[in-house]
User: Fold this.
Amino acid sequence: MALEEEKKEREAALAEARETSRKAVEEATRLRERTMTVEETASKAQEEAVFYKDAATDLDKEKVLIKDDLASAREAFQEMKVECVKGEIARSAT
Assistant:
């Protein structure tokens, strides 16, 4: 009788160990899946960061070009104003 009880206890302990092992395997699988998802998300975020960094660099280049164009336009406008004033002075002198 004691042997039967001991056998049942061992079988119950073995069943419990198997269940615990199964749960651990399931949890490990879930964690691997989550890790893969996080790694994919991080990779996409890194790609986007590179894209936006490149876009910002391009915008900075455009900004410099626009500033140069604006400076040239201001200079040309100033020269036109001077020529206009000179023309007005020349017309009023005659």
Remarks:
- The longest helix spans residues 2-93.
- Residues 64 and 70 are 10 Å apart (CA to CA).
